[in-house]
Specification:
338 residues, four-stranded mixed beta sheet, 10% helix, rod-shaped
Length: 338
């Protein structure tokens, strides 16, 4: 009995199968072709197993859609005949399934490259008779609504709605610096973050003391500026004309100055009283023999002597220890060094 090369349909010779031609034709069309186009089966595979192959009748290798499980707790492989064929394979197991072409129909020796189907994933694969490849689809236009499953290949156009990507999904990394509407990959975002924080930059966090290398995922960072506040570079001031130059004091420093005190010593006086004679008659007498009794007041002023003078200069203010700070707020600062 002759069969076709790929689907193994029964080929009826002219004048053959009298009385059974209808049965053979129905099997070709109703079983074999139907399975190749829309047939489905679940196959529990061992660690290395070939699909069944039967000429002119139902077999696993001819099915269009297959759900794989495994009877072994490990990654496993399945083998299809070495002919061109397309399959939709669902890996219903918790392990990776790899599909190969056999070197000879029915054996478990790989003829070429295979396709690994991750646990729980569904993929469309096709064979050229030697190698299995992933069916790449090109979606051109607009996708509207919810997309469930895997989009493999190039998607051109607009995607509106909800697109849920599984862990490990990849995309083309755009050139850093682009500001168009391209999808940003993790590598693009990482490059953008590093451009915002080049070596020598300062990272500040008000409450989180975690090293930025852990928070941002890149770079070598060291604690910076403990107990100090930054000040802008000034080429015209020798105090601020070098990067990371330090100075200043937490304690207040009194600027050199003088105090002047003035003391005045005023003169003083003594008074001396001298008593003279007075006449005894009721009236004054004139002449050379008259006698008088009177009072004479004499004032004596002197500026001689030594005076002790105490001068006091009043003071005010408080200790200068820790008194030289501007209003401040404490934060965590880190410097990127590599």
């Amino acid at each position: 009995m002759a069969t076709s090369d790929i689907l193994r349909l029964t080929l009826i010779a002219n004048g053959a199968e009298a009385g059974t031609w209808g049965d053979t034709t129905n099997t070709n069309l109703g079983t074999i072709l139907e399975d190749a186009i829309a047939g489905y089966a679940a196959i529990a595979s061992s660690a290395s197993q070939a699909f069944t192959i039967v000429d002119g009748a139902y077999d696993q290798a001819r099915l269009a859609m297959i759900r794989l499980t495994t009877t072994t707790a490990a990654n496993f492989a399945v083998y299809a005949p070495p002919v061109s064929k397309q399959y939709v394979i669902q890996n219903g197991s918790s392990y990776t399934a790899t599909i190969y072409n056999s070197t000879v129909a029915g054996n478990t020796t790989a003829a070429g490259a295979g396709v690994a189907i991750p646990a729980g994933k569904t993929m469309t694969v096709w064979s050229n008779g030697t190698d299995f490849l992933v069916q790449n689809s090109h979606v051109i236009g607009t996708v509207v609504g919810n997309v469930t499953g895997d989009l493999t290949g190039n998607v051109t156009g607009n995607i509106n709605g909800v697109v849920t990507a599984t862990a490990g999904s990849t995309a083309v990394t755009q050139t850093f610096g682009d500001n168009d509407t391209s999808i940003a990959t993790t590598a693009f975002v990482q490059a953008a973050l590093q451009a915002l924080h080049p070596v020598g930059s300062i990272y500040i966090n008000a409450t989180n003391s975690t090293n930025p290398g852990t928070l941002l995922g890149f770079g070598t960072w060291t604690a910076f500026g403990a107990g100090r506040v930054p000040v802008g570079f000034n080429a015209g001031n020798p105090l601020f004309d070098t990067a990371e130059e330090t100075g200043g004091s937490a304690d207040a420093i009194t600027v050199a100055h003088t105090h002047t005190a003035t003391s005045t010593d005023s003169g003083h006086t003594h008074t001396v009283v001298q008593e003279g004679g007075r006449n005894t008659s009721s009236s004054y007498q004139n002449g050379p023999n008259a006698t008088f009794r009177g009072e004479v007041n004499t004032t004596l002023t002197t500026n001689t002597g030594t005076a002790n003078i105490t001068t006091t200069v009043a003071s005010s203010g408080s200790s200068g220890t820790n008194a030289n700070y501007q209003p401040y707020i404490t934060v965590y600062m880190w410097k990127r060094t590599a």
